[in-house]
Each structure stands twice: as C-alpha cells, then as structure tokens.
Amino acid sequence: MDRDEAKGIIDRIDAACAQAGRVCIMEVCGTHTVSLFRSGIKSLLGESIHLISGPGCPVCVTSQGYIDAACELAVRPDVTVCTYGDMVRVPGQVGSLESQRARGGSVEVVYSPRDALTMAKQHPDRQVVFLAVGFETTTPGTAATVIAARGEGVENFSILSGHKLVIPAMEALLAGGEVPVDGFLCPGHVSVIIGAGAYRPIAERYHKPCVVAGFEPRGMLEAILHIVRQVADGKALVENAYGAVVSSEGNAVARDVVDRVFVPADAVWRAMGTLPDSGLELREGFRAFDAVGRLGVEIGPDVCPDGCLCGEVIQGKATPAECALFGTACTPVEPVGPCMVSSEGTCAAWYKYNRPAQPGVEKA
Amino acid sequence: MTPQGDDGRGAQIVMAHGGGGELTRRLLAEHIVPPLANDLLDPMTDSAVLPPIAGRLCLTTDAFVVQPLEFPGGDIGTLAVCGTVNDLAVMGAVPIALSLAMVIEEGLALDTLDRIVASIARSASEAGVVIATGDTKVVERRDTEGMTITTAGVGQVRQDANLAAGRIGPGDVLILNGHLAEHGLAVMSARKGLSFQTDLLSDVAPLGGLVQALLDSGADVKFLRDPTRGGLAGLLADLADETSLGIEIDEQAVPVTPATRNTADMLGLDVLTVANEGKVVAAVSADDADAALAACRAHPLGRAGAVIGRFVHAEVPLVEMMTSVGGRRIVSRPYGEDLPRIC
Fold first, then answer.
1. Architecture of domain B165-331
2. Which of A15, A214, A277, B77 would give a disulfide with B119, using CB separation of 3.0 to 4.6 Å?
C-alpha cells in the first residue's frame, strides 16, 4: 500500500466521521496496538478516531501470581523453564525470569511449545516446564504438544497454563460498562481459529460493530473505515476485512485439538480479577502434564505494583500517559508493570513509537 | 543447556589440548597455524613484530560469543574477523594485523574447529589482513556452545579520512549500503529452541573495500558506523544523541528484502532493531550524496545502497521515521536482545 492509497482510505474515514462523530475503537489485540503505531497509522488518523488498546496482550493480562510461580520454578535446581521471549522481563514480586536466570536459574526462550518438548526429551534428568500463555492463536500449539508428550510418554514435560480466551474478556469489559467503546477491531490471528462468527454475540448483545483485520496497514485502515461507517449508519455487524485468511467458522480442527486437551475454566486476569470461563485448564486425562500438580508450585495472588496502572490500561480505562509512573519510574529499561515490557504492551508501544519530548504530556 | 560437540564420534577437544604440552603443540601445528600462515605469525614468537607504520593508528578489540557457532551464511570465525576489521574500516583505517584468542570448551569437535579456523583464514584473506599473533585456551565444558573468540586489530588511518560525529550538521544525509536485518534473523533461525525455517543468510562481510570506495569517491564522508547489535535503530538513536540533531528517515527508502520483512513480521521483530554484520551507515554532505551513493552502488557490497534519511535541527534529538503509508513514528534503541513475541 502506498501513501496515496493510504490517504484515500483516511479521507473516506474522515468523511464517515463527519456523519458518525467521534468514534472510540478498541483494538483488542496487542499485535494491532503495535502495528498501528509501527506503521504510523495512529499518527495519520484525525481527532475523530480514538483508538483504545484492549486486553489482548498475552503477557500483560497474565497475573502477577503466575509470574511469581514461574520465577519460583526457574530457580529450582532440577527445573528448566521454557518461555516465549516476551515473558522474560516481566517483573514479579521477587524479580523477573531474566534476573532469575542471572542468579543461576534455568530459563530458555523458545518459539513454540514443540521446542520445549524437544528440550525435555534431550534432558530427561530435568523437569521442563513450558509457560503456556497466549490466546486462541497459541492454544492449539500447546494442546498438540501436550498430546504428543502423552503419546511419546515424555514424563519430564509439563505446562503452566495461563491461556486465556478473547471473547469472555470483551464481554467482561462491556458488561462493566466503564469503557466507552463504539466498536472493536478484532485480531486476525485469533480469528483464524475462532472464526469471525465468534464475535456475533458481542455485536448483537451489546450492539457493537466487530470488524476482523490482519496486521497490514491496508487491512487495519479498511477495518477502521468499516467500523466508522457502521457507527454512522447505526449498525452493529460482524464484518471480516481479512476474508482471505479468516473464515466465519474458523478452524474447527484446531479447536477440536484444544477441546481434547483443555476445558474452559475461571481465570485470573491482571487487575481484572477472576473472569468466569475465560481461561483453559487441562482435562482430567492430561492432568499429569500440569506443572501445578506435578511440581507442587502455587500460583499466588495477583498483587499489582503500587501506582502501576497496567490493569486500567489493559482494560482501556486509562492511557499510559495517565499513569504517573509512565516514562519516569517505569521505562522499558526499568519496567514496573508488564505493559511496559511486552513487545505488544500498550505502554511499551507508546513509549517506543510515540515518546513525547517530555514524558507524559503528549497524547497518542 | 546443551554443550555442543561430537560425543563419541570423531576427535574432540580435551582439557589436555590446553595444557601446554604435546597435545597443545599438535593442536596448533595441525589445526590452527597452517591455515593462518603468514610472515608475521610464522616465527611463532611471543609477540608479533610489526613493520614501522607512519601516521595515525587505530586499535580495536571485540569478543565473539555467538550461539550457535555456525549459522546460515557464516560462523563465529567469519564474525571474529569481519567484526574487528569493520570496526577499523568505519574509522577510515586500513587493517594491518589481527590478534586471535580462542577459548575452546572441551568436547568441541575438531572438525568444527577446523571449519571455524578455515573461515578465519578465508575472511582474513578477503579483508586483506593477517592473523599476526594468537592464543588458545581450553576450559571445562560449560552451558554454552563450544568456544568464544576475541580478536584485536590494528589499522592505519587514511590520511584523508576526517570522520567524527561532531562534523555532522543539519542537512547531511545518511546512506546505508544494503538490506537490513539478515544477520540477526539468520542466527536466530539456527538457535536452539527457535525452530523456524528461513532461507535468509547472514550478511557478514568485511567492509574495508566498500569504505575505501566511499572515501575514494571524493565525497565529504563525515562519519561511518556499522549497525551491528542494536541494529539501525540503535545506531541512529546514538547518533542523534551524539550530534544533538534530529534524524528523519524514510521507511520506503530503507532496503529490506520481502523475505526479511516477512520473517521479522512473523517473529514480531522490528527490522530496524535486528543486528547486521555487513552493513555500514555513512553520514555525507548533501551536496555529495550522489557521488557517495554511486561509489557505494558500484561496490559488490553496496549494490542495494540507498539514501535513507537526513539530519535536521530539533529541540529534542529523536529519530523519526516516515512510514511506508505516510505516517510518522519514533525510532528508539532496543532494550537488549531481540526476543520473538508470543503470537
């Protein structure tokens, strides 16, 4: 997409806004947050479009108790913790996985759960724990790996499930009624699995347009245009601006794999508390691969750092600039909360791509 | 967690190879010295004796700890030579001699060592430099991958080179010699635990010839630096700080191949923050941009070269990029190592 094409869509968005007024759009997913900043789209949209980041950064929504449990496991002499890179620097109550590694803990960054299983097979003398976090995009991989581990009889592999589901979080936000959202920009990769149709209850019950988009500038701009036009027309439909990749039904095979291994369960979200049926726990037949039972680790309470507004930021209730710590006590080098650490975190994206001349004074 | 090496198959490094006795002599005589042979090294004296050198000298050193030791497009040997000669090159220096210190872990396969020493010899030859002196130690097997290398290099600064960040002013342009991010992604693709497939090769290469061509062009080249760790983003952020100037770059002008772009997107990485080992950024007077770019593109390592941005007056020395869709965003230096995201 070139600059003229982008300008063409922006002009149409502006024209639709003339009819719709100011439109608040929540980008549910952290990948969209980063892509909107990185592509410069955020800087191109006029005052009429207010983009709010939602609870879709997997690291950011992970509870403090989970981070602390992972850190506790990492320093056990016979345990290796395998994690996606994003988790390594999230501060817990007693340091991060990064600092645990520096103290001699065993922490390995992997790109997929399969790599963790391979590591377990190569090191039968160690308990290898995979930190299974992420939304519907990553759960099929975890599920398939657990099935493989059981099939191959790998007894030193387990997962610490922190998996979360997108739709219950969106419903919790809307039910709370505190966030002024006019429509949702829905994540392409999650939607590949759950299907665009999964957003229908949101559109119908809460009368909010939901438009699925990929992460290319064109797709994101077109999706924003669709949302604004729906708002202007008083509609609340599910639309799919990522039709080449996302179907209405999603990937039933992948969902079946997840369903064989996991069952929906109440889950603790950072600062949001326990949301019913918003997480995934291992089914009875796969319980042996649950690190909580296997290694007797406890996931403690979700104690957020003093003054940190990450909990409000992930719910769209505050912008990073409204946090007193942003850019001063909390920076990517010395993060206080996870939103400043994760590559998909809202605070990290604000700091990295939109850093004002004086911290905390410029709006995104 | 996985000491590399060739357990039970083929010859390996053992502690005695570092003991100073017969095994040490054989290791040097059979595996290390012959591929590197040259007039400065061959006497095997305690120090190399260099010929008299007129003018200003540059001295630099670099330690190499890459994992894995071998990756698509290169290995720790090519890095150890290119990294150091490139640090000389960007100071406008012609390399004269390198030192080579290898700390090898027991268990490293001798075949692997032979390949790495051959790479060192080949890269030194390409760079027009010799390994004048060296040292080899053997340590117990650790949690890493087999060996680390430290090289130091001495070079003679060209008389006509006048390279300093302080000479850069508003309006000066930035030239980059080619495609970004290939080294970092190639190494990542070969790293344990990160099993993604890519055809990307490291761009590791000695930059001396290209730098000489830039300086020979007659263009007023004010500053040169190679965007290694921290990538282009780190280099530009540093340069903005050092010059107290703003920098504006144009995303459409920054050379990145589609394969690199796709791989970085898949991993959630910003190509601007990924490491390079065969790239150089030149700050050049705007009047001389065409001449410098022509010289760059005439060199095999600069064919994809481009003017990517310029220095501007700014109250706050930030790097700003006009994105491919016409938006703007800040370019920051990365925190530390690049880590793939979750989804």
1. Alpha-Beta Complex (3.90)
2. B77
